[in-house]
Write the C-alpha coordinates for this entry.
Amino acid sequence: MSARRARAAVVVAVALASGVVAGAMLLGCPSKNESEKAGASAGASASAGASSSAGAGAEAGAASAAAVSADGREIVRGACLSCHSEQMLAQQRLTPAQWSKTVGKMVVWGANLDPKEVEPLVAYLSATSGVDAGAYVADEVSAKEAVAEISATPDAPIPAGDVERGKPLFLDKCAGCHGSDARGATGIALVDRPFLYRASDFASTIRRGRGKMIPQTLSDAQIGDVLAYLRTLRNPPLR
Ligand code: HEC
Ligand code: HEC
Protein backbone atom coordinates (compact mmCIF):
# COMPACT_ATOMS: atom_id res chain seq x y z
CA MET A 1 0.00 0.00 0.00
CA SER A 2 2.53 2.55 1.09
CA ALA A 3 5.07 1.09 -1.34
CA ARG A 4 2.71 1.90 -4.15
CA ARG A 5 2.30 5.43 -2.86
CA ALA A 6 6.04 5.98 -2.76
CA ARG A 7 6.41 4.62 -6.28
CA ALA A 8 3.54 6.60 -7.61
CA ALA A 9 4.88 9.75 -5.98
CA VAL A 10 8.16 9.19 -7.79
CA VAL A 11 6.35 8.68 -11.10
CA VAL A 12 4.44 11.92 -10.65
CA ALA A 13 7.58 13.74 -9.54
CA VAL A 14 9.44 12.55 -12.62
CA ALA A 15 6.53 13.51 -14.85
CA LEU A 16 6.33 16.98 -13.35
CA ALA A 17 10.06 17.51 -13.28
CA SER A 18 10.75 16.57 -16.86
CA GLY A 19 7.48 16.97 -18.69
CA VAL A 20 8.82 14.10 -20.74
CA VAL A 21 6.57 11.38 -19.43
CA ALA A 22 3.51 13.39 -20.36
CA GLY A 23 4.95 13.97 -23.83
CA ALA A 24 5.77 10.31 -24.29
CA MET A 25 2.29 9.34 -23.16
CA LEU A 26 0.67 11.38 -25.85
CA LEU A 27 2.83 9.77 -28.51
CA GLY A 28 2.87 6.32 -26.99
CA CYS A 29 -0.78 5.36 -26.98
CA PRO A 30 -0.99 1.60 -26.48
CA SER A 31 -1.97 -0.41 -29.50
CA LYS A 32 -5.19 -2.36 -29.31
CA ASN A 33 -3.24 -5.60 -29.40
CA GLU A 34 -1.10 -4.72 -26.45
CA SER A 35 -4.03 -3.73 -24.33
CA GLU A 36 -5.86 -6.91 -25.20
CA LYS A 37 -2.88 -9.10 -24.35
CA ALA A 38 -2.15 -7.21 -21.17
CA GLY A 39 -5.84 -7.24 -20.32
CA ALA A 40 -5.61 -11.00 -19.89
CA SER A 41 -4.17 -10.53 -16.43
CA ALA A 42 -5.30 -7.11 -15.31
CA GLY A 43 -8.63 -7.09 -17.03
CA ALA A 44 -9.92 -10.60 -16.34
CA SER A 45 -11.96 -9.63 -13.31
CA ALA A 46 -12.44 -6.06 -14.49
CA SER A 47 -14.18 -6.91 -17.71
CA ALA A 48 -16.14 -9.73 -16.11
CA GLY A 49 -17.32 -7.11 -13.65
CA ALA A 50 -17.92 -4.57 -16.36
CA SER A 51 -20.51 -6.69 -18.06
CA SER A 52 -22.28 -7.69 -14.87
CA SER A 53 -22.28 -4.28 -13.25
CA ALA A 54 -22.89 -2.21 -16.37
CA GLY A 55 -25.84 -4.40 -17.29
CA ALA A 56 -27.92 -5.94 -14.55
CA GLY A 57 -25.83 -4.47 -11.76
CA ALA A 58 -26.74 -0.85 -12.37
CA GLU A 59 -30.41 -1.47 -11.54
CA ALA A 60 -29.81 -4.19 -8.99
CA GLY A 61 -28.78 -1.49 -6.52
CA ALA A 62 -27.24 -2.15 -3.15
CA ALA A 63 -26.53 -5.84 -3.73
CA SER A 64 -24.17 -5.04 -6.60
CA ALA A 65 -22.53 -1.99 -4.97
CA ALA A 66 -19.75 -4.09 -3.44
CA ALA A 67 -19.06 -5.84 -6.75
CA VAL A 68 -18.97 -2.51 -8.59
CA SER A 69 -16.42 -1.19 -6.08
CA ALA A 70 -14.15 -4.22 -6.22
CA ASP A 71 -14.16 -4.18 -10.02
CA GLY A 72 -13.69 -0.42 -10.07
CA ARG A 73 -10.58 -0.70 -7.97
CA GLU A 74 -9.14 -3.28 -10.38
CA ILE A 75 -9.92 -1.02 -13.33
CA VAL A 76 -8.19 1.89 -11.60
CA ARG A 77 -5.14 -0.33 -11.02
CA GLY A 78 -4.98 -1.30 -14.66
CA ALA A 79 -5.85 2.01 -16.28
CA CYS A 80 -4.88 4.88 -13.97
CA LEU A 81 -2.11 3.94 -11.55
CA SER A 82 0.59 3.83 -14.20
CA CYS A 83 0.39 7.65 -14.15
CA HIS A 84 -1.35 8.59 -10.88
CA SER A 85 -1.19 7.58 -7.24
CA GLU A 86 -4.31 6.14 -5.61
CA GLN A 87 -4.15 9.06 -3.19
CA MET A 88 -4.27 11.66 -5.95
CA LEU A 89 -7.47 10.08 -7.26
CA ALA A 90 -8.97 9.63 -3.78
CA GLN A 91 -8.56 13.35 -3.07
CA GLN A 92 -10.80 14.38 -5.97
CA ARG A 93 -14.40 15.36 -5.25
CA LEU A 94 -16.16 15.21 -8.59
CA THR A 95 -19.76 14.65 -9.72
CA PRO A 96 -20.49 11.62 -11.94
CA ALA A 97 -20.64 13.97 -14.96
CA GLN A 98 -17.22 15.39 -14.07
CA TRP A 99 -15.74 11.92 -13.56
CA SER A 100 -17.14 10.83 -16.88
CA LYS A 101 -15.52 13.81 -18.61
CA THR A 102 -12.19 13.27 -16.81
CA VAL A 103 -12.09 9.58 -17.69
CA GLY A 104 -12.80 10.43 -21.34
CA LYS A 105 -9.92 12.91 -21.29
CA MET A 106 -7.56 10.34 -19.74
CA VAL A 107 -8.41 7.84 -22.48
CA VAL A 108 -7.35 10.44 -25.04
CA TRP A 109 -4.14 10.92 -23.06
CA GLY A 110 -3.34 7.23 -23.07
CA ALA A 111 -5.24 5.48 -20.26
CA ASN A 112 -5.53 1.82 -21.21
CA LEU A 113 -9.26 1.43 -20.77
CA ASP A 114 -11.65 -0.98 -22.45
CA PRO A 115 -14.92 0.79 -23.48
CA LYS A 116 -16.82 -1.74 -21.30
CA GLU A 117 -14.85 -0.56 -18.28
CA VAL A 118 -15.90 3.10 -18.52
CA GLU A 119 -19.30 2.79 -16.84
CA PRO A 120 -18.21 0.70 -13.81
CA LEU A 121 -15.15 2.91 -13.44
CA VAL A 122 -17.17 6.14 -13.38
CA ALA A 123 -19.62 4.51 -10.90
CA TYR A 124 -16.72 3.47 -8.66
CA LEU A 125 -14.99 6.85 -8.76
CA SER A 126 -18.27 8.71 -8.18
CA ALA A 127 -18.97 6.49 -5.15
CA THR A 128 -15.50 6.68 -3.61
CA SER A 129 -14.42 10.20 -4.64
CA GLY A 130 -17.73 11.92 -5.25
CA VAL A 131 -18.91 15.26 -3.91
CA ASP A 132 -20.43 13.54 -0.83
CA ALA A 133 -17.31 11.58 0.08
CA GLY A 134 -16.41 13.81 3.04
CA ALA A 135 -13.02 15.21 3.94
CA TYR A 136 -10.00 13.35 2.58
CA VAL A 137 -7.86 11.84 5.32
CA ALA A 138 -4.26 11.25 4.28
CA ASP A 139 -2.52 8.00 5.28
CA GLU A 140 0.58 8.46 7.33
CA VAL A 141 3.89 6.78 6.76
CA SER A 142 6.95 7.28 8.91
CA ALA A 143 10.06 8.80 7.35
CA LYS A 144 11.87 5.55 8.16
CA GLU A 145 9.30 3.42 6.29
CA ALA A 146 9.36 5.79 3.33
CA VAL A 147 13.14 5.58 3.07
CA ALA A 148 13.10 1.78 3.50
CA GLU A 149 10.79 1.46 0.49
CA ILE A 150 13.19 3.10 -1.91
CA SER A 151 16.63 2.35 -0.49
CA ALA A 152 19.02 0.01 -2.26
CA THR A 153 19.03 -3.71 -1.40
CA PRO A 154 21.72 -6.31 -2.20
CA ASP A 155 21.59 -7.61 -5.81
CA ALA A 156 21.89 -11.31 -4.86
CA PRO A 157 20.52 -13.69 -6.09
CA ILE A 158 20.41 -11.60 -9.29
CA PRO A 159 23.95 -11.84 -10.73
CA ALA A 160 25.92 -8.88 -12.05
CA GLY A 161 24.93 -8.52 -15.70
CA ASP A 162 26.37 -7.50 -19.01
CA VAL A 163 25.39 -4.17 -20.62
CA GLU A 164 25.99 -5.45 -24.18
CA ARG A 165 23.58 -8.37 -23.66
CA GLY A 166 21.14 -6.24 -21.66
CA LYS A 167 20.50 -3.60 -24.32
CA PRO A 168 19.09 -5.91 -27.05
CA LEU A 169 17.14 -7.81 -24.41
CA PHE A 170 15.60 -4.57 -23.20
CA LEU A 171 14.75 -3.49 -26.76
CA ASP A 172 13.16 -6.88 -27.43
CA LYS A 173 11.19 -7.43 -24.22
CA CYS A 174 10.54 -4.05 -22.65
CA ALA A 175 10.94 -1.16 -25.09
CA GLY A 176 7.54 -1.76 -26.72
CA CYS A 177 5.92 -0.45 -23.53
CA HIS A 178 8.65 1.50 -21.75
CA GLY A 179 10.00 3.29 -24.85
CA SER A 180 13.22 2.62 -26.75
CA ASP A 181 14.98 5.17 -24.50
CA ALA A 182 13.31 3.62 -21.39
CA ARG A 183 11.85 6.99 -20.56
CA GLY A 184 8.24 5.86 -20.64
CA ALA A 185 5.44 5.21 -23.11
CA THR A 186 2.55 2.89 -22.11
CA GLY A 187 4.82 1.75 -19.30
CA ILE A 188 6.47 4.09 -16.84
CA ALA A 189 9.93 5.66 -17.17
CA LEU A 190 12.69 3.29 -15.99
CA VAL A 191 15.66 5.70 -16.08
CA ASP A 192 17.33 6.78 -12.83
CA ARG A 193 14.70 5.11 -10.65
CA PRO A 194 15.35 3.70 -7.15
CA PHE A 195 13.89 0.27 -8.09
CA LEU A 196 16.91 -0.31 -10.36
CA TYR A 197 18.87 -0.80 -7.13
CA ARG A 198 16.34 -3.21 -5.61
CA ALA A 199 17.09 -6.20 -7.83
CA SER A 200 14.84 -8.75 -6.07
CA ASP A 201 11.80 -6.46 -6.17
CA PHE A 202 12.63 -5.62 -9.77
CA ALA A 203 12.79 -9.33 -10.65
CA SER A 204 9.45 -10.10 -9.02
CA THR A 205 7.75 -7.15 -10.76
CA ILE A 206 8.96 -8.51 -14.09
CA ARG A 207 7.92 -12.09 -13.34
CA ARG A 208 4.56 -11.31 -11.77
CA GLY A 209 3.68 -8.35 -13.96
CA ARG A 210 1.82 -5.37 -12.59
CA GLY A 211 -1.36 -3.67 -13.78
CA LYS A 212 -1.16 -3.65 -17.56
CA MET A 213 2.36 -5.06 -17.55
CA ILE A 214 2.30 -8.70 -18.64
CA PRO A 215 4.51 -11.12 -16.67
CA GLN A 216 7.80 -11.85 -18.45
CA THR A 217 9.80 -15.06 -18.16
CA LEU A 218 13.39 -13.91 -17.80
CA SER A 219 16.17 -15.87 -16.09
CA ASP A 220 18.10 -14.33 -13.19
CA ALA A 221 21.02 -13.82 -15.60
CA GLN A 222 18.81 -12.02 -18.14
CA ILE A 223 17.34 -9.79 -15.45
CA GLY A 224 20.91 -8.99 -14.35
CA ASP A 225 21.73 -8.04 -17.95
CA VAL A 226 18.68 -5.76 -18.34
CA LEU A 227 19.46 -4.14 -14.98
CA ALA A 228 23.10 -3.58 -15.95
CA TYR A 229 21.93 -1.80 -19.11
CA LEU A 230 19.22 0.29 -17.43
CA ARG A 231 21.69 1.42 -14.77
CA THR A 232 23.86 3.02 -17.47
CA LEU A 233 21.05 5.33 -18.67
CA ARG A 234 20.69 8.91 -17.41
CA ASN A 235 18.01 11.52 -17.90
CA PRO A 236 19.27 14.65 -19.64
CA PRO A 237 19.66 17.65 -17.34
CA LEU A 238 16.56 19.84 -16.93
CA ARG A 239 16.53 22.98 -19.00
C1 HEC B 1 -0.84 8.09 -19.58
C2 HEC B 1 -0.87 8.77 -18.31
C3 HEC B 1 -2.21 8.93 -17.63
C4 HEC B 1 -3.10 7.93 -17.33
C5 HEC B 1 -2.98 6.45 -17.63
C6 HEC B 1 -4.16 8.56 -16.61
N1 HEC B 1 -3.94 9.89 -16.48
FE1 HEC B 1 -5.07 11.21 -15.42
N2 HEC B 1 -3.77 12.71 -15.88
C7 HEC B 1 -2.60 12.56 -16.60
C8 HEC B 1 -1.88 13.82 -16.61
C9 HEC B 1 -0.55 14.08 -17.28
C10 HEC B 1 -2.68 14.73 -15.87
C11 HEC B 1 -2.32 16.18 -15.57
C12 HEC B 1 -3.27 17.08 -16.19
C13 HEC B 1 -2.98 18.52 -15.92
O1 HEC B 1 -1.86 18.89 -15.57
O2 HEC B 1 -3.96 19.23 -16.07
C14 HEC B 1 -3.85 14.01 -15.42
C15 HEC B 1 -4.87 14.55 -14.64
C16 HEC B 1 -5.88 13.83 -14.04
C17 HEC B 1 -6.84 14.38 -13.11
C18 HEC B 1 -6.85 15.80 -12.63
C19 HEC B 1 -7.97 16.56 -13.25
C20 HEC B 1 -7.82 16.87 -14.71
O3 HEC B 1 -8.81 16.68 -15.45
O4 HEC B 1 -6.75 17.31 -15.16
C21 HEC B 1 -7.66 13.36 -12.76
C22 HEC B 1 -8.83 13.42 -11.77
C23 HEC B 1 -7.23 12.17 -13.47
N3 HEC B 1 -6.13 12.48 -14.23
C24 HEC B 1 -7.84 10.94 -13.37
C25 HEC B 1 -7.43 9.80 -14.09
C26 HEC B 1 -8.13 8.53 -14.05
C27 HEC B 1 -9.40 8.23 -13.28
C28 HEC B 1 -7.40 7.68 -14.82
C29 HEC B 1 -7.71 6.22 -15.15
C30 HEC B 1 -8.89 6.03 -15.99
C31 HEC B 1 -6.26 8.41 -15.34
N4 HEC B 1 -6.32 9.70 -14.89
C32 HEC B 1 -5.28 7.86 -16.14
C33 HEC B 1 -2.13 11.40 -17.15
C34 HEC B 1 -2.74 10.16 -17.08
C1 HEC C 1 2.93 -4.82 -22.01
C2 HEC C 1 3.68 -3.63 -21.66
C3 HEC C 1 4.91 -3.81 -20.79
C4 HEC C 1 6.02 -4.62 -21.04
C5 HEC C 1 6.26 -5.55 -22.21
C6 HEC C 1 6.91 -4.37 -19.95
N1 HEC C 1 6.36 -3.48 -19.07
FE1 HEC C 1 7.16 -2.87 -17.32
N2 HEC C 1 5.46 -1.85 -16.89
C7 HEC C 1 4.43 -1.63 -17.75
C8 HEC C 1 3.41 -0.81 -17.10
C9 HEC C 1 2.10 -0.34 -17.70
C10 HEC C 1 3.90 -0.55 -15.79
C11 HEC C 1 3.20 0.24 -14.68
C12 HEC C 1 2.38 -0.78 -13.93
C13 HEC C 1 1.58 -0.25 -12.76
O1 HEC C 1 2.18 0.09 -11.73
O2 HEC C 1 0.37 -0.22 -12.91
C14 HEC C 1 5.18 -1.22 -15.70
C15 HEC C 1 5.95 -1.24 -14.57
C16 HEC C 1 7.25 -1.71 -14.53
C17 HEC C 1 8.09 -1.67 -13.36
C18 HEC C 1 7.62 -1.21 -12.00
C19 HEC C 1 8.44 -0.21 -11.34
C20 HEC C 1 7.96 0.01 -9.93
O3 HEC C 1 7.12 0.90 -9.75
O4 HEC C 1 8.38 -0.71 -9.02
C21 HEC C 1 9.31 -2.18 -13.73
C22 HEC C 1 10.53 -2.36 -12.85
C23 HEC C 1 9.20 -2.57 -15.10
N3 HEC C 1 7.94 -2.28 -15.56
C24 HEC C 1 10.23 -3.15 -15.84
C25 HEC C 1 10.04 -3.80 -17.05
C26 HEC C 1 11.06 -4.54 -17.74
C27 HEC C 1 12.50 -4.66 -17.29
C28 HEC C 1 10.48 -5.08 -18.84
C29 HEC C 1 11.11 -6.01 -19.86
C30 HEC C 1 11.66 -7.23 -19.34
C31 HEC C 1 9.09 -4.64 -18.86
N4 HEC C 1 8.86 -3.87 -17.76
C32 HEC C 1 8.15 -4.97 -19.83
C33 HEC C 1 4.29 -2.16 -19.01
C34 HEC C 1 5.14 -3.09 -19.57
The radius of gyration is 19 Å. The pocket of heme C (ligand 1) is lined by residues 22, 25, 79-80, 82-84, 89, 92, 102-103, 105-106, 109-111, 113, 125 (CB under 6 Å). The chain is about 60% helix and 0% strand. Confidence is low (pLDDT under 50) at residues 1-64.
